[in-house]
Amino acid sequence: MYKRLSIVMFPFLLLAVIGASVWGYLEHQEKNTILIKAENQYQRAFHDLSFHVDKLHTELGNTLAVNATSEPSYRKGLVNVWRLTSQAQSDITQLPLTLLPFNKTEDFLANMANFSYRMSVRDMTKQPLNEQEIKTLSALYDHSAEITKEIRGVQDKVIANNLRWMDVEMALASENETRDNAIIDGFSSVDKKVGAYEELNWGPGNLTLLSKNDVKMLSGNNMTADEIKQKAATFLGVSDTAAMKVVENGGSAPELQSYSVILPAAQGNENDTQLDFTKKGGHLIYFMKPRTVQASNFDLRQARDIANEFLDQHEYKNMSAVSYDQYQNTANIIFAKREKDVTIYPQQVSVKVALDTLEVTGVQATDYIYGQKQRNLGQPKISTAEARKQLSPNMKVTSETLAIIKNDLDEEVLCHEFIGTMNNNIYRVYMNADLGGQEKIETIRPKQAEAASGAAKK
């Protein structure tokens, strides 16, 4: 009986074993294919990085070799430096270095990209590179030579020893193994060298990754946690502060010092309410009362009016809506400071309004609070009519006003702001009110144009 049963079952077992073997082989092949593809991508990104850093060093040398008064040559060289630095940053993001401390090198490249971009877009016929900027370029040339040498050394080891980036990824992901990988050691050495460089003067308008807030612009004295609780209670319209939790942020860095106030959700509510205040002066910079909004019983105009009234009741005075939008039954309205009929875009406040009850559920006011300063709002040197002549004759202008914006150099400039339609699109165009020429152009949606038009007419 067992003999007959085994004769019958043997073909099925054999097929099962063959099927399992084939499946396992195919899975193994597929896994190998994925690993090979990932390894090839890592190798390509690494060798591209080595090439771009090498070219970056060469381009910095070429830029320094020409006369500082040669505006076209300097501009071309700086544009190439910016392009190569951006490409090197892109190469780094494609490598498995997220668990490896490499932030100093990334910050260095980001600052170099910002520096070269700001220099390249500047009118050098009116503002040529000064002695300090030439000195910074020379330092970048020297530093890039060292970085190139280090990365070439890693590249030589990779080629000579046939090193794999997949081993790097596994070594970084493992918490038990010591990280003695040659590639990891090489990149750690690069970051250590960059961290030891003397701080460079990147210029007053440098667009750093973590721009520091200017606490000198804040009014008032440093607040205690209890005083912040009282401010939060006043803002929320409650009398009992016992349930509030206050956390101090920022450590010893003045530009980061703030308080976070957490009010636990009442029974039946969804989430806690959070407010952030500056330590100096106790100014509200963030408020969020998250909840699900089930329906839209009111329109965006009504939400805008409620938000405007809300800001006026607090410390955000003379604000005008410049754009508003709707998402999941919640209106998001952006307001800008309005002073002497000039819209000041660097001072903005974003307000969220629930469209079921018109309750204000969020405020983001960091730009407004830290953007306060004395501005000389003089008369434009170029008239509205002259600025308008520089627009396309095909644009139908629907509104015009004066505005202060930040240009590509992160400098505040006075502009003529025009909103108009062309090619079935709506555009917001900023023309420099003192020097002429276009500073910025944006494509906007109909609702945003409506809001900006309304602000211009106020």
Automatic annotation (TrEMBL):
Q: Which domain of life is it from?
A: Bacteria
Domain called Sporulation protein YpeB PepSY1 and PepSY2: residue spans: 185-377
According to the entry, every stretch annotated as the Sporulation protein YpeB N-terminal domain falls at 30-167
Q: What is this protein called?
A: Germination protein YpeB
Q: Which organism is it from?
A: Paenibacillus alba
The protein's gene is named ypeB
